[in-house]
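Entry type: protein chain
Record version: 2
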Amino acid sequence: MHYDFTAKGCKIQEAGWRSIKGSFTDDGEEPVQELPELHKGDELKIKEATVLEKQTKPPVLYTEAGLLSAMETAGKEIENEEERKALKNIGIGTPATRAAIIETLFTRNYIQRDKRSLIPTEKGLQVYGLVKDQKIADVAMTAEWELALQKKREQRSGCRNIPKGNGNLCQIHYR
């Protein structure tokens, strides 16, 4: 019996900029498949082999509009379902405060404009290096805060956001 099959994969030799992202695939791409492990004495009949030498490109820099959109949809990748739901319609900041947050980044010299792109400054990269592994840099913390605020509002109002017959949520009335 004879079988033909194809094995595709790659070997990451140097993570480069992707070491920051922590992922070796872009959105919408198939995950990177490691080449199968072969041992001495394994027999393979190889019809054809090609080697492609490529370099990855870093993600496109944010524009102000892109950053505003990312802030609005932040939290899509949070694993905890309750936290993800808490940020689903909120994101980071509110529509009224997101532009002010970006202006603060400019004022504190954390970012600068290069044509339409936003570029982190040396100071911004230093701050990022200090906080990137801290809880404050995790969007899940914002979700936790939103959940805590929601629970406080529910306790004060006695309303539990229980859907009513027509699918609307009960309204919260502040005292």
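Comment: The two ends are 79 Å apart (CA to CA).
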